[in-house]
Amino acid sequence: MLQIKDLKVHFPTQIGTVQAVRGLDLTLEEGKTLSIVGESGSGKSVAVQSVMRLLPSHAKISGEILWNGKNLLGLAEKQMQSVRGREIGMIFQDPMTSLNPTMKVGHQIAESILQHERMSAKKAVEKAVELLDLVGIPDPRRRAASYPHQFSGGMRQRAVIAIAIACSPRLLIADEPTTALDVTVQAQILELLKDLQKQMGMALLLITHDLAVVGEVADEVAVMYAGKPIEYGPVEDVLHRPTHPYTQGLLRSRPIPGSREPLISIPGTPPDLLNPPQGCAFASRCPHAMRICKDYQPDVETIDNKQVACWLLHPQAKETLGWNSYSY
Ligand code: SF4
Ligand code: MG
């Protein structure tokens, strides 16, 4: 249904070009959940903003984003407007930025319905009340007449979800939908997303930095580092049998409820994407780095059901260029 092919996104700036996404290939099938996980600055938000064509106009985008066969990157803005909201819905991290503080919540939902569907305003408001009920807002009729500031953070995010699903999109993109919320509310919003997905049969593209969230909801996961996916495949294979040293590091640095094992964080920082390294972007932080890692980018290899970009999967890499001969 959604196929991203060799996506690259560059932002020219006064001091050089930021290579935010450096070659992304992903596929999402009807009704499934794909999660993109990575630290901030790894390119995950930029990738989904490219899908929605929400990037600033100076961004340079190449590659293809195929949505049911048509390349979204080639659509005129007018055609794109009918994809946004109607075929693909999107929710962001901070619900306040998606809501208009001066407008009653019910009217905002009604307005977004009327952008895509022909019906009377009265009917749209009725539908808004039904949607508020569907996303679990109690006393929806009264709540439809409230303003966003009268809602709690969790209720606001529910209202944003109501807007995003108002036209029954085939795909819902959620960019860190729970990050701004309290832990208990986070779990409720994830539960809601899972329920809605099941009821409506939508696909979900979920951006997060939280591996626990991935384990909860996703079928497949792509781990991004410095603008590239470094490990991509079914959740069990990636989270339970991580292959890439970066994925292994992420999993070791995540708190496990009830465990007394010390957390080991990954030393160092991600590279500067104004000037990305010539070889593997993780080399300066990788405990297994070899000389070849610094000079050449690893090819993507298929192992089990996953795609992994790491020289460790190439037996000759050690032999020809010296195991551990490059030290940091
Ligand atoms: Fe580490 Fe080399 Fe693999 Fe990069 S390619 S993750 S530096 S072993
Ligand atoms: Mg982000």
TrEMBL record:
Domain of life: Bacteria
Family annotation (Gene3D superfamilies): P-loop containing nucleotide triphosphate hydrolases
SMART domains: AAA (SM00382)
Compartment(s): Cell membrane
Topological relation to the membrane, as annotated: Peripheral membrane protein
Name of the featured protein: ABC transporter ATP-binding protein
Keyword rRNA-binding belongs to the record: no
Gene Ontology MF terms: ATP binding
InterPro entries reported for this sequence: AAA+_ATPase (IPR003593), ABC_Ni/Peptide_Import (IPR050388), ABC_transporter-like_ATP-bd (IPR003439), ABC_transporter-like_CS (IPR017871), Oligopep_ABC_C (IPR013563), P-loop_NTPase (IPR027417)
All copies of domain ABC transporter, residue ranges: 2-251
Family: Belongs to the ABC transporter superfamily.
Organism: Alicyclobacillus dauci
Keyword annotations from UniProtKB, A to Z: ATP-binding, Cell membrane, Membrane, Nucleotide-binding, Transport
